[in-house]
Write a structure and sequence with these properties.
Pfam family, one (chains A, B): AP_endonuc_2
Protein name (chains A, B): Sugar phosphate isomerase/epimerase
InterPro entries (chains A, B): IolE/XylAMocC-like (IPR050312), Xyl_isomerase-like_sf (IPR036237), Xyl_isomerase-like_TIM-brl (IPR013022)
Shape of chain A: globular
Keywords (chains A, B): Isomerase
CATH superfamily of chain A: Divalent-metal-dependent TIM barrel enzymes
Strand order of the largest sheet of chain A: 1-2-3-4-5-6-7-10
Number of helices of chain A: 11
Oligomer: homodimer
GO molecular function, one term (chains A, B): isomerase activity
Number of strands of chain A: 10
Chain lengths: ~280, ~280
């Protein structure tokens, strides 16, 4: 798989800086976020990535369908932005739990997909539902497993509604092997980072560079490849220490790690059995 | 279901203080932890709870089977302590991931159960595997769903190896309704607390009193009851603010909440859609 750099991994870099970094390090894909794209300008960003010969492996992000406002207009705009950028997919974060009715919140995700799928199809944009780690179920994503994302995608054509396989969100899943195999035609994005312990105070930033944590990324990458996925492997890391490093340093590091097939960098072999609360 | 107070909910109270609090508030069950029991003395604790007419709804905890030392001797001691206390079950926390091989770690849990089940059976103690929220998969519990715990229990008699249904650990599970129904003969312990947001810096302490968070405890309690469980509902909350309150105040509060059938106390109906990282 070719390497893609999600710009959130080097979040202090502007769109032009991220494009330059990718070019300097031979990274052929980039994952963009809507806010910095809007800052630089949608059309200018589209021209910039095209002239740099970069592929936009994903646009982050639409979704957040579970509130009483389902954000459908904003998601239609996100679809149009993904089309303008020629993005391989628009990542959809389901949204959290606005009350205590989890099945209803999950139902609102299904309803939103049915409304948006025709718009996405006519725009030539592939929607990608992201299963989100259960630690974020309440405040970020009520779709908790790859199997559940596949159920939500099932009513739609695989080319219109796919799923994201993000190592951080799915690595713990007892059904992972079977679910990745079942996802074969719908894997729209493969994102990697690593689960690190101890978690930082903000669990959202509990992501390490691939190879620095507990996840068997060699194994997961093998499962995704065996499912026939031949797109980009996109590195998306939210980590204060990584953000503090120069973007060139991070990119060079990721190119090295990618070349090893995401072999572990640190030894996770010591015992982490916890103390009692 | 009768109410039980897990002593970790009032962790600053000694064993005699917890027993007194239960007696004063008409709480008929108590969940004990091995460390404070050892401090007060096993035989003295057994006499104390017996003379107070209390049922030990659970002893916390054995398990942590996933390290290279599987702690089998310590678990045999825990079984004997549970027998001495007449505990309804010994809670087994699976243990975390000492390396990157999740299937192997899960296999060590199965192997340990096979070794310990005969000892538990002869001691008349019911083992209770606790599925642990995936946020703790790496450092605390590699058994992530109720369905997975049931698979591990399957080779053993339901009276010897059961499962724990802890609201905090299982509430997010898309398969919850089916899994609780499937667990019917094996539900050895039902524990309640609530998932609160934002999470504190230490996610282990991200537990609220039942009714203060996102979990539909009325619904979950209905599922557990429909599965035929007629044991205690045990409140286990790790929360600095709760620990800072007088034990009598916490117990009175829990008796009131239990009387409502765990109706929500705060309104979770406002929208919690998150900001971007």
């Amino acid at each position: 798989m070719k390497l893609s750099l999600n710009q959130a991994t080097v979040k202090r870099a502007s769109v032009p800086e991220v494009v330059d970094v990718c070019a300097r390090h031979g990274v052929e894909g980039v994952g963009l976020w809507r806010e910095p794209v809007a800052e630089h300008g949608l059309a200018r960003t589209a021209d910039l990535v095209r002239s740099a010969g970069l592929t936009v492996s994903s646009l982050c992000r639409g979704g957040f369908f579970t509130g009483h406002d389902q954000r459908l207009d904003d998601n239609r705009r996100a679809i149009d932005e993904a089309a303008a950028l020629g993005a391989r997919c628009l990542v959809l974060v389901p949204g959290g739990l606005p009350d205590r009715d989890l099945p209803a919140a999950r139902g609102r995700v299904a309803a939103a997909l049915s409304v948006l799928a025709p718009h996405a199809e006519s725009a030539g944009v592939r929607l990608a539902i992201e299963p989100v780690h259960p630690v974020f179920c309440a405040d970020r994503g009520v779709v908790s497993t790859l199997a559940q994302a596949l159920e939500l995608a099932a009513p739609h054509a695989p080319g219109v509604v796919g799923v994201v396989v993000d190592a951080l969100h799915v690595w713990w899943d007892p059904a992972l092997e079977a679910s990745v195999a079942a996802a074969a035609p719908r894997i729209a994005s493969y994102q990697v980072c690593d689960w690190v312990t101890p978690l930082p105070a903000d669990v959202l930033l509990g992501r390490g560079l691939p190879g620095d944590g507990h996840v068997d990324l060699v194994g997961l990458t093998g499962l995704v490849a065996a499912a026939g996925y031949d797109g980009f492997v996109e590195v998306e890391v939210f980590n204060e220490e990584v953000w503090a490093r120069p973007a060139d340093d991070v990119a060079a590091d990721l190119v090295r790690r990618h070349a090893t097939g995401w072999e572990p960098v640190v030894d996770g072999g010591h015992d982490r059995l916890p103390v009692s609360p």
